[in-house]
Write a structure and sequence with these properties.
The protein is built from 26 helices and 31 strands. The protein is of the alpha+beta class. The strands form 7 sheets. It has a 7-stranded mixed beta sheet, with helices on both faces. The protein has a 6-stranded antiparallel beta sheet with strand order 11-12-16-13-14-15. The chain has a 6-stranded mixed beta sheet with strand order 22-23-21-20-31-30. Residues 562-793 form the Endonuclease/exonuclease/phosphatase domain.
Length: 807
């Protein structure tokens, strides 16, 4: 009855959902998959380094992310983005599994010999076409993306605010006036909210503008930053959040969104600045709205993963430190070495903070700062310099009687570039990589450790990537880095205070925040790479990867035991999903799981063997006791464990007594059983009995007497420590529990600093009893978004201390 009422409420709420109305009015197609089908939402917080996230969590800037870690069992992990530490390289690895698809955000395209940057539609399309020639399977096939540089398999109209697609633009333009009015009316609150946020951000932008001008910043740049800032931090964030919620209502299998606000502010004011961290509060709110919409979805069972593509370094512009652009410095330093070398004045001074302006059609801003074409050489190979962030590349340098080492040394000593790398033979990708820094010549990988320093989190990985990058088809003849060990402050070759794209310790230190049951591949060395995220996402969407709960072990003395009535794997939302039950179990990593109300080959649950399916998903051994056998259909209880296990007994418990009230008892009676196994743990043999008692008091009393009798707990084979657990359908002060309490102890009442809590409608009917030789360290009854939906019961979990004993 309660389940039917809940389902009715959900259906009516869905009819009045703004997201459903938007999808209907725009004629957007919806998924026809079953509600238990997995779905995935990837939220990228652009430019947020792991240390800066920890700082934001510590000072309360991101309360929702902190809540995910405390209450929803999300785990914060390191992610290494690779070098170049820039968005297109990370997205290519995430979407296609291709590392270093580009050498930098801006580079010389070797096919056309023209300078290009990744926000240019033709450049983004060219890079993606190169990847597609390798017959890669794109991650976002059938899904949607927001603020992505690549379409990554999305269909036409499903890539929003992207260089290669217009998203819902054509659908909006073709809508009738009535449809547009309905869209406005159904989203009037969101529009008011967005308008208020724009007004607030505009006021803060003006304050920041005045402060920047007073501090000596360029007036025109500061003025141009105001609309860019408001557009990136508010408009795109709000539009993307609304769009993701619409796609969740449609049931798309995978959705990717990139939240740019922090990265934009960090480029302008630095990653540690107050304004950059202020933006995180709005991003945290957007993540919370997406997460809540995902967990209220009806068409799919969504999971939400949050990560960053890279970090940022607090940098100083090269032109600010040395009073001229890198192009001017190189022209002067190399004019005596390289014949007719002349780089146009001011080349490389364009600021990265203007990269995203084309999202709003403001190409006139680009014209104001676009560097002039480089000087052409014979053979139509122009001399070119790209310099964005802490990475610059010099192309097509003709050397006459001058060694490459001599050029690198001159760049370091006269142009004051911290590190220059080059291949000894530029025509061979396997040629050794040499370089120069302020202490003299270097060779990779032999000198990699001293170039990165002792404090770098990924020195070996960075050096390997830098070697590989020197052989990229679009890489320059000379790779110039604004940071290496010993630099007091990293340099950026653009006019910005925060930058990324190089090999610095912060820009190569991203993060991944995901549920604890999502595990990296077995080959992962303690951190994630974008390719690992891709593999985990594909496995999650297939629903085929075992969730190995024994991967993260507790101390040997501690045994984690769980009892869980799974309601036939049908949640309170009416969705039948053994995968969701497996996720609940895997998230808490128990050693022993006692499950009740499992269906095996029953028509009502699709003919699935739920016990076997859960055991396979969790990579655990299983023993099942059917309480009901109807031809091939069975229904009962099971024990799952990854520890050495031996089945001792399984059987049916007594039914209701004869006499008064027998007709009533028979009307509500179903057979009840128990399953008993022996577990080996820490040198002990533990007796574990799982049961599910009846609904009537008289029946339960008979069943308790049977469990305490010679067939079960008082059986000569029931030696050593004992644990009796399951769904007893009885309150703690009932006669049944009091009778059991005379022989065993209630784990919830024995746990230190724990208030006994209910597991079914706040009523305590699931119990875990244990013998006197076992002590309870901690009890947990997780009441999360996942556990509240997966079953009508909550799991009861106890950490039990088992002393080490010899056999």
């Amino acid at each position: 009855m309660l389940s039917r009422i809940g389902l009715s409420i959900r259906r009516w709420r869905r009819r009045f959902s703004r997201s459903e109305w938007i999808a209907h009015l725009l004629g957007l197609p919806s998924s026809r998959r079953q509600p238990h089908a997995p779905g995935l939402i990837l939220i990228q917080i652009d430019g947020l380094a792991y240390p800066e996230l920890r700082k934001a969590l510590r000072v309360g800037r991101m309360p929702f992310l902190k809540r995910l870690m405390r209450r929803e069992h999300y785990r914060l992990q390191h992610l290494y983005p690779g070098v170049p530490s820039t968005t297109p390289a990370v997205q290519a690895e995430l979407f296609y599994g291709v590392r270093q698809a580009v050498p930098a955000f801006g580079f010389l395209v070797h096919e056309t010999q023209k300078l290009g940057r990744m926000y240019d539609p033709e450049v983004a399309a060219l890079v993606e076409s190169r990847i597609n020639t390798q017959q890669r399977d794109p991650l976002l096939r059938g899904g949607s993306c927001y603020l992505s540089l690549f379409r990554a398999g999305t269909q036409t109209g499903e890539a929003h605010f992207c260089p290669a697609d217009q998203g819902w633009g054509p659908a909006l333009r073709s809508s009738s006036p009535l449809t547009l009015c309905m869209l406005i009316l159904t989203n009037i609150w969101s529009l008011f909210r967005t308008g208020a946020l724009i007004l607030l951000e505009l006021i803060l932008s003006l304050v920041d503008f005045v402060r920047g001008v007073i501090q000596g910043q360029d007036l025109l740049r500061e003025l141009m930053f105001i609309p860019t800032r408001v557009g990136i931090t508010i408009l795109t964030r709000e539009f993307c959040t609304m769009g993701v919620k619409v796609d969740i209502a449609r049931g798309l299998p995978i959705i990717y969104v990139n939240l740019l606000g922090y990265d934009e502010q960090s480029h302008r004011r630095g990653p540690r600045s107050a304004f950059a961290h202020w933006v995180l509060k709005g991003i945290d709110d957007a993540v919370g709205r997406i997460w809540r919409a995902a967990h209220a979805a009806d068409r799919r069972h969504y999971d939400v993963w949050i990560f960053s593509d890279h970090g940022q370094e607090q940098t100083q512009p090269y032109a600010e430190r040395y009073g001229r652009s890198l192009g001017d410095a190189l022209s002067e330093a190399l004019s005596g070495l390289c014949e007719t070398l002349e780089i146009p004045p001011g080349h490389g001074s364009c600021g990265v903070q203007l990269e995203r302006k084309r999202l709003f059609g403001s190409e006139w801003m680009d014209k104001a700062w676009e560097p002039e074409d480089a000087t052409r050489k014979e053979g139509n190979r122009p001399l070119a310099l790209t310099a964005l962030g802490p990475l610059a590349m010099l192309y097509n340098v003709e050397l006459t009687g001058v060694s490459r080492a001599q050029v690198a040394r001159t760049i370091v000593e006269q142009a004051h570039v911290p590190l220059v790398l080059y291949r000894v033979d530029p025509k061979s990708r396997s040629s050794p990589v040499h370089g120069w820094w302020k202490y003299g010549p270097v060779r990779l990988p032999e000198d990699g450790r001293k170039l990165m320093g002792d404090q770098h989190p990924y020195p070996h990985q960075v050096i390997a990537d830098m070697i590989s990058l020197c052989g990229h088809p679009d890489a320059g003849d000379f790779m110039m880095y604004g940071w290496c060990a010993g630099e007091r402050q990293p340099l950026t070759f653009a006019m910005e205070n925060g930058s990324h794209g190089g090999a610095g310790p912060n820009e190569t230190q991203a993060f991944a925040l995901m549920p604890e049951d999502i595990q990296p591949p077995d080959s992962s060395p303690g951190y994630w790479r974008p390719q690992d995220l891709r593999s985990a996402a594909r496995a999650y969407l297939r629903g085929a990867r075992p969730m190995k709960v024994h991967k993260h072990r507790r101390p040997r003395e501690v045994l984690r035991v769980m009892t869980y009535n799974v309601h036939g794997c049908r949640g309170v939302d009416g969705t039948l999903s053994p995968q969701r039950i497996a996720r609940v179990i895997a998230r808490y990593r128990p050693d022993i799981v006692a499950l009740q109300e499992l269906d095996v080959m029953r028509k009502r649950s699709g003919g699935l063997d739920q016990a076997e399916r859960l055991a396979r998903l969790l990579a655990m051994d299983m023993h099942f006791q059917p309480a009901i056998n109807l031809e091939e259909e069975r229904y009962g209880d099971a024990i799952l464990t990854h520890l050495p296990v031996r089945l001792i007994k399984r059987g049916i418990l007594p039914g209701p007594p004869k006499g008064k009230g027998r007709l009533f008892n028979l009307a509500f009676h179903e057979p009840r059983g128990a399953v008993w196994v022996e577990i080996e743990h820490n040198g002990n043999r533990l007796q574990i009995i799982n049961t599910h008692l009846g609904l009537s008091r008289a029946e339960r009393l008979r069943q308790v007497d049977a469990l305490l009798g010679p067939e079960w707990l008082n059986n000569p084979r029931c030696k050593g420590e004992r644990i009796l657990l399951g769904d007893f359908n009885a309150l703690p002060n009932s006669a049944e529990c009091k009778r059991l309490g005379g022989y065993l102890r209630d784990a919830q009442e024995q746990a230190p600093q724990h208030t006994p809590t209910g597991t079914f409608l706040k009523v305590r009917i699931d119990h875990l009893f244990l013998s006197a030789g076992l002590s309870v360290k901690e009890v947990c009854i997780p009441r999360t978004a996942l556990t509240r939906r997966a079953s009508d019961h909550l799991p009861l979990i106890a950490d039990i201390e088992v002393p080490c004993r010899s056999r």
